[in-house]
Amino acid sequence: MKLIAKHHAFPRLCMALLFIGVNLFFAPSLSSAITVGEEYRGGIVFYVDESGEHGLVAAKKNISGHSRGMSAEEFTWYDAKAACTKFVSGGVRQGWHLPNSSELRKLYLQKERVGGFNDHFYWSSSREDEESAWYLYFYSGDANHEVKMAGGRVRPVLAF
User: Fold this and answer.
1) pLDDT of amino acid 33
2) Residue 22: what pLDDT?
3) How far is CA 33 from CA 56, 59, 65, 90, 126, in A?
4) Within a 10 A sphere around the Cβ of 44, how many other Cβ atoms?
5) Exposure pattern of 32-43 as b/e (b: 16+ CB <10 Å)?
6) Which CATH number fits domain 30-159: 3.30.40, 3.30.870, 3.40.50, 3.10.100?
7) How confident is the model at residue 54, as a pLDDT?
8) What is the pLDDT of residue 24?
9) What pLDDT does residue 25 have?
10) Along the chain (160 residues), what's the average pLDDT of each consecutive run of 10 residues?
11) Domain ranges of the chain
12) Looking at CB atoms within 10 Å, which of 48, 76, 108, 116 has the fewest?
């Protein structure tokens, strides 16, 4: 009887090994990691952090429409911000926003993989002062600031 009592850890060990095996079987594989260029949450992934679990998605195309008195797809900075918060794609309604200058730079670096950009300037949410905000010119990659009432293109982004 003492011999059996000494081996009471054996069933626990078997259960632990079974639990580990089940978890390894059902755990997501590395091949399911999100990658740049992949369609995800209504857009195209253009940035993934080192963990592979968090990053940024861009809308598949510019926001259509325009601010009053402007050409097609041209928005004031104020209208650009508002249009992004109302944007819906792939059933995702919340979280879309006008990219800040750092996010916009990351998007520019992946513009070929995301696609659909014009050789125009795109607004960022980053302000220079009360009257101006930063933009990025998608032809050359040059950044500058412009009065918020100027017309720029808009590409919403979403963090995951």
Assistant:
1) 87
2) 41
3) 14, 20, 35, 20, 30
4) 22
5) eeeebeeebbbb
6) 3.10.100
7) 97
8) 43
9) 42
10) 51 51 43 88 97 96 97 97 96 95 98 96 98 97 98 98
11) 30-159
12) 116
- DSSP labels for the chain? -HHHHHTTHHHHHHHHHHHHHHHHHHSPPGGGS--TT-EETTEEEEEE-TTSS-EEEEESSPPPS--TTS-TT-B-HHHHHHHHHH--BTTB-SS-B---HHHHHHHHHTHHHH----SSEEEEEEESSSSEEEEEETTT--EEEEETTS-BB---EEE-
How many Cα atoms are found within 13 Å in the side-chain-facing hemisphere of 23? 6
Six-digit token pair at 81? 């911000």
Name, in order, each residue with C-beta under 8 angstroms of 132's C-beta and a sequence gap of 6 or more: 145, 146, 147, 148
The span from the CA of 57 to the CA of 45, in Å, is 4
Q: How far apart are CA 158 and CA 42, in angstroms?
A: 9
Look up residue 121 and give its amino acid. Answer: F
The token pair that represents 6 in the structure block: 């000494």
Q: Give the C-alpha separation, 59 to 36, whole Å.
A: 13
